[in-house]
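Lecture 7 notes: from sequence to structure.
We start with the chain below.
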Amino acid sequence: MNRPSLWAPWRISYLEALDKPEACFLCAAAEEGLTQDELARRLVLLRDDRGVLMLNRYPYTNGHLLIAPLTHSPDLQSLSRDQRIGLMDLTEFATRVLTQALNCHGVNIGMNVGRAAGAGVPGHLHQHVVPRWHGDVSFMDSIAGIRVIPQAIDRTYEKLKDVCDRMA
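Predicted structure tokens for the same chain:
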């Protein structure tokens, strides 16, 4: 069968990492004392006592955010009440940042808890916040089964970081 190829070379680091036990990238993003350059390399938009807010390096669409508690906890019941409240508070903040920075029309919010539920990092609970726009499911998604991400991640980071810093 002759099928066209869609090149996405940035995905190889994710695929290679699936087979290697390595440090939790959410814990690395939540580390204290990181320089601004280190935060930017890790795509961290905000880190405070509520948790860490960062861009997903392998996004569903541009602006796909991850929110995680500072502690490496696998599920909601492992978090304290204050940690759960902090997670939701950061989620609300993330929706405001996305709306202002990217002018999205809505958001999808969700968690995959446990490997069986699709969690890519089952040991560190995190929430996804995905911006959505009217008509963002184009013919590429419908016909070709390919989602087009229209903005480079470094440009998305810059836009979100600017708004996040002003709103924080």
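Points to note: Residues 16 and 142 are 29 Å apart (CA to CA). DSSP finds six helices and five strands in the chain.
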